[in-house]
């Protein structure tokens, strides 16, 4: 499905998604029109979903990041729908993920500091519907944060 040129394009886009097409083409060793057409094709095929900005929340003053694992009360027919709907309304929730297994959902939450975290936890998280169990994991450091694949 992917040839060597596509793989080189993807590697360079992962390293620097904002680079101009002319620079990308030069790095990959193709003409700018070829690079543009291939990126368009990869986008149309759904291989490239987006080129996005990655925000450093710590640089914006959010020094606390917590991963919360939830098990929901599955005796309630709309437990998942109600929980997800309510969690989407919490501005500090960066991600909502669902799982198969002991844990049903995970929320990634940011806060400015521990005082702010306590406020979010008490007033927004603990009031989410249908929680049977919750586990909080506070992020200490990120050792690897890459979306690069061996393409």
Give an overview of the whole structure:
The chain contains five helices and four strands; from the N terminus they run αααβαββαβ. Helix 2 (21-28) crosses helix 3 (32-44). The chain is elongated, with a radius of gyration of 20 Å. It folds into two domains: 4-44, Winged helix-like DNA-binding domain superfamily/Winged helix DNA-binding domain (Arc Repressor Mutant, subunit A), CATH 1.10.10.10; 64-138, 2-Layer Sandwich (Alpha-Beta Plaits). With 151 residues, it is α+β, with helices and mostly antiparallel strands. Strand 2 (93-98) and strand 3 (105-111) form a beta hairpin.
In short:
The chain is α+β, with helices and mostly antiparallel strands and 151 residues long. Strands 2-3-1-4 form a 4-stranded antiparallel sheet.
Largest sheet strand order:
2-3-1-4
Secondary-structure content class: alpha+beta
The best one-word shape is: elongated
How many whole angstroms does the radius of gyration measure? 20 Å
Number of domains: 2
CATH topology of the largest domain: Alpha-Beta Plaits
Helix proportion range: 25-40%
Q: In total, how many beta strands?
A: 4
Fourth-level CATH superfamily of the largest domain = Lrp/AsnC effector binding domain/regulation of amino acid metabolism (RAM) domain
Mean pLDDT across residues: 93
In the predicted model, the low-confidence regions spanning at least 5 consecutive residues are none
Could you tell me the strand content as a percent range? 15-25%
What does the largest sheet look like? 4 strands, antiparallel
Number of helices: 5
Please identify, by name, the CATH architecture of the largest domain.
Answer: 2-Layer Sandwich
For the termini, the CA-CA separation is 12 Å
CATH class category of the largest domain: Alpha Beta
Helix-strand topology string: HHHEHEEHE
